[in-house]
């Protein structure tokens, strides 16, 4: 059963019926503009580097922590006033 699915996948790759598979000939659709946009966008995002992504995630999680702290402060003030 497994070998049948592997053989079927290999035949589909050889016939060019699949999308882009690294190392597989054909099926890349080099003229497809969305493929090129995806490649360029991925390259740009990766080129930003690890420090950028670390700072971005730190900012997002910091924002979450600040919102939670403000909510706790507001609930404690509401409990004290009642």
Structural description of this entry:
By secondary structure, the chain is an all-alpha fold. It has 2 domains: 1-47, no CATH class; 51-82. 73% of the residues lie in helices and 0% in strands. The radius of gyration is 25 Å and the shape is elongated. 0% of the residues are buried. The mean pLDDT is 79.
Write the topology of this structure.
Blueprint: H1 2-14, H2 33-47, H3 50-81
Give the key terms.
single chain; 82 residues; elongated
- The rough form would be described as elongated
Instruction: Assess the beta-strand content as a share of residues.
Output: under 5%
Radius of gyration: 25 Å
The description of the largest β-sheet is: none
| Spatial gap, N to C terminus | 69 Å
What structural class do you assign from the helix and strand content? mainly alpha
Number of helices: 3
Rounded mean pLDDT score: 79
Give the oligomer, counting copies of the same chain as homo and different chains as hetero: single chain
Order of helices and strands: HHH
Count of β-strands = 0
Low-confidence runs (pLDDT<50, min 5 residues)?
A: none
Structurally, how many domains make up the residues? 2
How much helix is in the residues? Answer: over 70%
């Amino acid at each position: 059963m497994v070998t049948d699915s592997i053989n079927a996948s290999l035949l589909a790759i050889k016939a060019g019926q699949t999308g882009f598979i690294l190392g597989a000939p054909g099926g890349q659709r080099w003229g497809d503009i969305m493929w090129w946009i995806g490649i360029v966008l991925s390259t740009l995002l990766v080129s930003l580097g690890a420090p950028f992504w670390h700072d971005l995630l730190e900012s997002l999680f910091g924002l979450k922590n600040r919102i939670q702290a403000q909510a706790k402060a507001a609930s404690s003030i509401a409990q004290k006033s009642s």
